[in-house]
Amino acid sequence: MRYIDVHCHVQFEDYVRDQAELLERMREREVGGIVVGVDRRSSEEALALARRYDHLWAAVGVHPNRIPQELFVEAFYRKLAEDPKVVAIGECGLDYYRPTQLTDEVKHAQQDALRAHADLAAILGKPLIIHARPSKGTQDAYHDLIALLTEKKAEHGKRFTGDIHFFVGGVAEAAELFALDFTTSFTAVITFTRDYDEVIRTAPSDRILSETDAPYVAPASRRYERNDPLAVEEVVRRIAEIREAPEEDVRAAMLANARRVFRL
């Protein structure tokens, strides 16, 4: 394996017509992937794929925007997560951007669900995969996330770690997350915006991961098309350009970081 996409959704219906072909292309290109669930069904499907393909692993959890429709049932997700092919708990977290009415009740429901995911991750010794999206023009979701993770870090200690997927925060927020032993991962959005260059440029080399969030956010080379995990090669290339580092060194670091965080 030369590359790994630490966050993709190749179990989604977007791939119903060519899933097998795509996964074979990933194998040929030596691209591994962590298939991430967002609810019961997609978590089960992620694990089913991971069991069938040796270059795939799974994460299981409830996305914050699914919380109104689906509660996090610890017993159900614990049973899935005990499988050795499940390497993380999530996608879970805080989304203050999408709710049409961001009330205290909505925030508290998301925060309670995240605490439950965090406790399960600590019990099983597996990292979290966290979704955090602040409301427009703010970093509010990151501030609440950092406070919650600080609380859980004090409770669970060194074994409590994870990755902040599709990071869109600033240098200050990243530094606080790094201090809590969390990493940040970046998608192909960095191929068509410069908004995150400073974070990528200044982050310690062992705190960055590469992902695609496929089927979302295709790189500039095929903007607005369906994305796939093969785009992780372009993400790594762009990270190397931003950091003004040899691409091969960055590729090796991204792979080593993923192996460490997710114990692959």
Main attributes?
264 residues; alpha/beta; eight-stranded parallel sheet; 42% helix
Characterize the structure shown.
The chain has helices spanning 19-28, 40-52, 74-81, 104-124, 140-156, 171-179, 197-202, 232-243, 247-262, and strands at 3-8, 31-36, 56-60, 86-95, 128-133, 162-165, 182-186, 208-210. β4, α4 (104-124) and β5 (128-133) form a beta-alpha-beta unit. The relative contact order is 0.14. It has a single domain (3-262), classed as Metal-dependent hydrolases (TIM Barrel, Alpha-Beta Barrel). An 8-stranded parallel sheet has the order 1-2-3-4-5-6-7-8. By secondary structure, it is an alpha/beta fold.
Query: DSSP helix count?
Result: 9
CATH topology: TIM Barrel
Number of E-type strands: 8
The assigned structural class equals: alpha/beta
In brief:
The chain is built from 9 helices and 8 strands.
Task: Give the arrangement of secondary structure elements.
Elements: E1 3-8, H1 19-28, E2 31-36, H2 40-52, E3 56-60, H3 74-81, E4 86-95, H4 104-124, E5 128-133, H5 140-156, E6 162-165, H6 171-179, E7 182-186, H7 197-202, E8 208-210, H8 232-243, H9 247-262
